[in-house]
Amino acid sequence: xxxxxxxxxxxxxxxxxxxxxxxxxxxxxxxxxxxxxxxxxxxxxxxxxxxxxxxxxxxxxxxxxxxxxxxxxxxxxxxxxxxxxxxxxxxxxxxxxxxxxxxxxxxxxxxxxxxxxxxxxxxxxxxxxxxxxxxxxxxxxxxxxxxxxxxxxxxxxxxxxxxxxxxxxxxxxxxxxxxxxxxxxxxxxxxxxxxxxxxxxxxxxxxxxxxxxxxxxxxxxxxxxxxxxxxxxxxxxxxxxxx
Length: 243
What we know:
The protein has helices at 13-36, 43-53, 76-85, 91-123, 129-132, 155-161, 172-185; strands at 57-64, 67-74, 140-143, 151-153, 166-168, 195-198, 211-214, 220-224, 229-233, 239-241. It is an alpha+beta fold.
């Protein structure tokens, strides 16, 4: 098959819908083929031919929107079916269209996958904080480093700021060297993101399960997603309590 749909431990609504629609299109083509043929094939055998026809030799292309792309070029499944069905006269003629439908179905899945990725990026923008933190009413923080002080999350301020926070570049190297420089001058080790935010949920259907950290000054949020990290800054501190 041309695209790898991975729904393990996540629920991505749009890819599931497009995958179902792709199978519906294939089923319609198969149904019309059966109606047109004079010698009616058995439905279960036609289905097997379609499934076997899916097997192909594919070439990989650069990822598009973080999605691996494969294009089928050699119909391995069709060749396998031909080698078996040609042994009995008339059988290959009856089922060859379904074998080729399986091969061309790879391109239907490819089109569906590209449409799904496009719609997924539009519906769930990966550069917006609200995608990763859709519901924050039950949000809390916990200290994950000794330098983290006993403070609480200002949920009301977070609700006000979540759509207004500016995205800034993740300065990984700079943050590391700044931390090393501070640690050399002080016996007390400080962590830039000593708090972890929990109790939030991402947008329903996005399939995202990020790990979210809060900066020591209470204004920075670091979102650690499977394929990237994003850093957002608030105009107002999101922490309450002793500084």
